[in-house]
Design brief:
The protein has 271 residues and is of the alpha/beta class. It is 44% helix and 11% strand. It has one domain: TIM Barrel (Alpha-Beta Barrel).
Length: 271
């Protein structure tokens, strides 16, 4: 999943693709690099970010969605606002990526009205404005698991089929450094929820806290984190650096395929 931030204040590339034409050009570059899905957002959710109105968010993202509608690549809209969800779906979005896990009034209904749109439910403690003030958990993995299970149940009760759901543990959203690495280490625990897992680790501060690198120099850390997430069961990785991530995953998949072939050959010989 390639990231397109149509914002002036996102933590990594805020302002780089703020104009419609810049965002469209970046999207086409990500497609050329091999992105399988594009995630378009018009409101930053970095720690301490300020909310924007639905009108402003729509002004930022709808022209980009409409311009990319004929590219034949799935388009996701990164939003928590039901009004933006509805307009984005009408403009061609096939996924809603909601950091608030459809908890805003009207959000469940906005997605349920469409019988084909996927939705990613993410865990976040607090709000982007408050989430990093002093996040605390008794058991981070269990509490994230329980929250996501509750949101899956709420979505299915609202008429959203389970096969339309994806979950995201929300790295960096109301978590300390220790919380984030505990989640990454035990990410496979969330597979029992029975829906695909998305991991968004690209360029985040939890990576820079280990290496000391600034946000613009975290490509190696981001690739390592994405690879570890896939090893732990993630089916989608949300990244800024598509080419580098795909190449790393190609090596991992080659190893897995070789092991599978060896196992099949051994089984065939025994038979």
């Amino acid at each position: 999943m390639g990231i397109i931030n149509v914002t002036p204040d996102s933590f990594s590339d805020g302002g780089h693709y703020f104009s419609t034409q810049q965002a469209i050009a970046h999207a086409k570059n990500l497609i050329e690099e091999g992105a399988d899905i594009l995630d378009i957002g018009g409101e930053s959710t970095r720690p301490g970010s300020q909310q924007v109105s639905a009108d402003e968010e729509l002004k930022r993202v709808i022209p980009v969605l409409e311009a990319l509608a004929d590219t034949q690549i799935p388009l996701s809209i990164d939003t928590s606002k039901p009004a933006v969800m509805e307009r984005a779906i009408a403009a061609g979005a096939c996924m809603i990526n909601d950091v608030n896990a459809l908890r805003s009034p009207g959000a469940l209904e906005a997605v349920a009205h469409s019988n084909h749109v996927q939705v990613c439910l993410m865990h976040m403690q607090g709000t982007p404005q408050t989430m990093q003030a002093n996040p605390q958990y008794c058991d981070i993995v269990q509490e994230v698991n329980d929250f996501l299970q509750q949101r899956i149940q709420a979505a299915t009760a609202a008429g959203i089929a389970k096969n339309r759901l994806v979950i995201d543990p929300g790295f960096g959203f109301g978590k300390t450094l220790q919380h984030n690495y505990t989640l990454l280490n035990r990410l496979d625990r969330l597979l029992d929820l029975g829906v695909p897992l998305l991991a968004g680790l690209s360029r985040k501060s939890m990576l820079g806290a280990v290496t000391g690198n600034s946000v613009d120099h975290r490509i190696h850390e981001s690739i390592a984190a994405a690879l570890l997430a896939v090893v732990k069961g993630a089916k989608i990785v949300r990244v800024h650096d598509v080419t580098a991530t795909k190449e790393a995953l190609a090596i991992y998949n080659a190893m897995k395929n070789s092991a599978a072939q060896e196992t099949n050959a051994s089984t065939s010989n025994r038979n």
